Amino acid sequence: MEPAALKAGSKQEDGFGVQPRRVADLGRVPSLQRSSSSLCRSRRSQYAFSSCEKQENLSSWIPENIKKKECMYFVESSKLSDAGKVVCECGYTREQHLEEAIRPQAFQGNEWDPKKHVQEMPTDAFGDIVFTGLSQKVGKYVRLSQDTPSSVTYQLMTQHWGLDVPNLLISVTGGAKDFNMKPRLKSVFRRGLVKVAQTTGAWIITGGSHTGVMKQVGEAVRDFSLSSSCSEGEVVTIGIATWGTVHNREGLVHPMGGFPAEYIMDEEGQGHLTCLDSNHSHFILVDDGTHGRYGVEIPLRSKLEKFISEQTKERGGVAIKIPIVCVVLEGGPGTLHTIYNAITHGTPCVVVEGSGRVADVIAQVAGLPISEITIALIQQKLAVFFQEMFETFTEGTIVEWTKKIQDIVRRRQLLTIFREGKDGQQDVDVAILQALLKASRSHDHFGHENWDHQLKLAVAWNRVDIARSEIFTDERQWKPSELHPMMTAALISNKPEFVKLFLENGLRLKEFVTWDTLLYLYKNLDPSCLFHCKLQKVLAEEPERVACAPALPALLYPRPRSSDRPRLLLPVPHIKLNVRAGNVAPARRGLHAGPLLCP
User: Fold this and answer.
1) Average pLDDT over residues 52-65
2) Residue 573 above 60 pLDDT?
3) Which of 11, 184, 402, 438 is the most exposed place for a label (fewest CB within 10 A)?
4) What is the rounded distance in angstroms from the CA atom of residue 585 to the CA atom of residue 531?
5) Residue-wise pLDDT tens digits, 459-500
6) How far is CA 277 from CA 177, 208, 283, 413, 460, in A?
7) What residue stretches are annotated with the TRPM-like domain (predicted)?
8) Distance between CA 306 and CA 171 in Å, rounded?
């Protein structure tokens, strides 16, 4: 989210009526209800008995780990609220302070200092959120201190909100005010963004407000929800916003937790504040103890995204660090700063040309040599794409923009320009995944390790189309044995298209099927799937070999190093893998197995 576009000082909204907050009102609060990965399942079990148990189990965790911020010293501001009321330097009225904050005390006579006069205490706003009159969709929300460690926030999201660890993190940034996009480009962006999130198991992170780029993302998710079945699951869309700028946030204050809290969207009455977007699934509302000041959430969001990208996800015997990509639409000075920071820290960025302002300025010069990206050229582009505010750009500002854009374009391996219908690009989802692969080719991975890493990403995302077009090319010839680890991962995670791809590219079952392989599959497949049952029958014939089997690695299955590894004492032609649409299963001695049926 771009704070510059919305910044409104510390003015208070007319009639903003948060109830006076008292420490005595804060008891031990119940837990957040763990959400299921499927929206349909979460609706069916929303208020079941088990949810009450989960609330009780978390009652000791919330007050110990999740805090809010409170101003503890009322200092009258020279500015009045929009309603003409006297407010503190923090932006809140006298009535909205704790009793001890308005008593004569040791602080008196000092200037207001947030480091001294704002304190943490247990949060009073968390739980489930429903948007009154809009939909039956139930989301999660929490108000937390700006100083909350990323590890605690991540623990809340994965353990207590029940979110699956993502295979990809998509951070969407850009204009915080509403902007116009051509209908076709808007459609392509919405379809591609949701497709990449839904197919790869990604988290989308935005500023969470019902305006600008965040509204565009929310409407993309809404359109997907209306056109998809429950079995396709929910797109995880996380809004990270400033608590003190959320309109009607008093409805979210529930010291014992809101299950659910009802939130009313009122765009006409929001004034300088903003409403939350009803199409996001989770909200992290960052509190610094002030009212009406934008941008408070930016440092916490940056740290959280970095923390998540450093986590490792393991599935099917393959471990990868969670990749992150920044997607940019439109935007102003704050967006340029965000892109610059992302590129500087090695995060690939996809800039959507045609969305306007900063995105179009960068897109217009991205293909030029650095020497041709001059101050005069950037000034010319700003005059075209920032017509309304061009007069406010000083000479120093234009010089600063030129230097930043030069630095961004200089790292071309991290910058991808999405041009709808051009350069062979068809959809945003492909552009995003191609950008990540392009970045990985020049970052931390070299030679064979680089190609191996890219293949891990493609398997984790379950995007065989990307593997075919970007990895299995004439540029790289794979040895059959190099595909063994990924073949094992594809079998465990039930990805038949990848099994078929590996067989097409030279993997030999005669070399792949060993006792070590079968034992590893047996120990890692879900016991309820048919493949596991078939393996159990095979292994039951050799109990002594199973009992003497060496310990197997917990993560990545090792690549075979020689041809003298123990083989199955069964005729190889009688052990086959049936690859069907949507299913992988073994067939043995003429018995053709049915679907894999892993849950």
Assistant:
1) 75
2) no
3) 184
4) 5
5) 999 999 999 999 999 888 899 999 999 999 999 988 999 999
6) 13, 6, 9, 34, 30
7) 470-545
8) 11
Q: Kindly state the percentage of the chain with pLDDT values over 70.
A: 78
533 phi-psi bin (left φ>0, alpha ψ -120 to 50, beta other):
alpha
Q: What backbone phi and psi angles, to 5 degrees, belong to 128? A: -100, 150
- Residue 442 binned pLDDT confidence (cut-offs 50, 70, 90): low
Does the pLDDT of residue 24 top 90, yes or no? Answer: no
Strands 312-315 and 318-321 come out as antiparallel
The two tokens of residue 290 are: 């002030």
What is the side-by-side strand order in the sheet with 139-145? Answer: 258-263, 126-131, 139-145, 282-287, 236-242, 202-206, 168-174, 324-329, 349-352, 415-418
What is the pairing mode between strands 583-588 and 575-580?
Answer: antiparallel
| Highest-pLDDT range among 74-88, 126-140, 279-293 | 279-293
Find out whether 238 and 301 touch, Cβ atoms under 8 Å.
no
Closest by Cα among 358, 333, 355 to 180: 355
Which of 325, 329, 319 lies closest to 345 in space, CA to CA? 325
| CA dihedral angle for residue 135, residue 249, residue 241, residue 277, rounded to 10 degrees | 20
